User: What shape does this take?
Amino acid sequence: MAGWIDRLRARRKARALTLYRSAISDIDLALQQEATRSTAAYVRKHMYTVQSVSRWRAVHDVAIEQVRLDGLVLEFGVYKARTTRYIAEQRDWHLHGFDSFDGLPEPWRDGFPEAKFSRAAMPEVPENVTLHVGLFEDTLPGFLAALPDPPQPVAYLHVDSDLYSSARTIFDNLADRIVSGTVIVFDEYFNYSGWEEGEFKAFQEFVAARGLGYEYLTYNHEHQQVAVRIA
Ligand SMILES: C[S@@+](CC[C@H](N)C(=O)[O-])C[C@H]1O[C@@H](n2cnc3c(N)ncnc32)[C@H](O)[C@@H]1O
Assistant: This one.
């Protein structure tokens, strides 16, 4: 009996030691805690009265509810089309999805090397979705040039490209069509290590350069999604 209890105690002690070691030396955990703290400080300063949600779908629900413009519905970063399908189903509209399907064109952060999210086959999408396959920088200019006049604004934009450089390409190309009322959802706006250098930075640079105001609509307080509307 005593031997069995001693073995149980020893196992518990070893487990507690392992948990303790990972809690004090796990770099991932430390980086995430640091990122969550800086995100919380940002929320406190810039989004204090914004009502948050706890699911990515809810971020889109709040954002879609705010769409008033009759314009382009665009998604950058389709991958398995999980978000593509969700957005497409919410309204009677047509979504254009952009992706190379070759994965990230350059390394992002730890765990996301170049080519992460590459796919052998195209995802199945509903009929109200058109996919534009290739790098954004190759497909987006031609897509826009082929649209009829007068230029339609962007009504809804989902930025799920992870990388700063890709988000930058999106804003550079869409600049003239992002107007008062355009609703934008970012899949990775904050709350991960390096967030200040990613989609967040591309957006901040864009609004600063164009002299645009914006309003936060909601954010996922357990993750990284944020919705904004251009003022
Ligand atoms: C996180 S995944 C998108 C996830 C997707 N929204 C979903 O819910 O399944 C990011 C995608 O962005 C694409 N991507 C990133 N930068 C790109 C670029 N410059 N041109 C084309 N595709 C790009 C990658 O190929 C990848 O599939």
User: Anything to note?
Assistant: The chain has a mean pLDDT of 95. Residues 2-35 form one domain. The first helix runs from residue 2 to 25. DSSP finds seven helices and seven strands in the chain.
